[in-house]
Amino acid sequence: MSRSxxxxxxxxxGASLEVLRAEANDELQTxxxxxxxxxxxxxxxxxxxxxxxxLVVWMLRAELIRxxxxxxxxxxxxxxxxxxxxxxxxxLTRTVWTMLGRLDQAS
Length: 107
Known about the structure:
This protein has helices at about 5-15, 15-35, 40-45, 50-65, 75-90, 95-105. It is about 75% helix and about 0% strand. By secondary structure, the chain is mostly helical. The protein is globular and about 40 Å long. The longest helix is centred in the N-terminal third of the chain and has 21 residues, at about 15-35.
């Protein structure tokens, strides 16, 4: 029995923060493992990887964008999406605001 991609995404949105963090941690471990297998030096790439909470925020953001017809958000809409994630998941608030600060510095 195969699941549609939409089913897994809607299931993730309703998942607890602990489950989302576990999924993100698994994803990051896979990325690290693959890069190590490719011979990359961890001292060279570890700092460029997102934290577990940052990856959770990006996953939640991607789901919100998907639900909005896959339209790329404007800067103002992106700000509102990230802010809504912080409101929906209070333990991610510090991570969201840190990410917003980095986005402001980059623009």
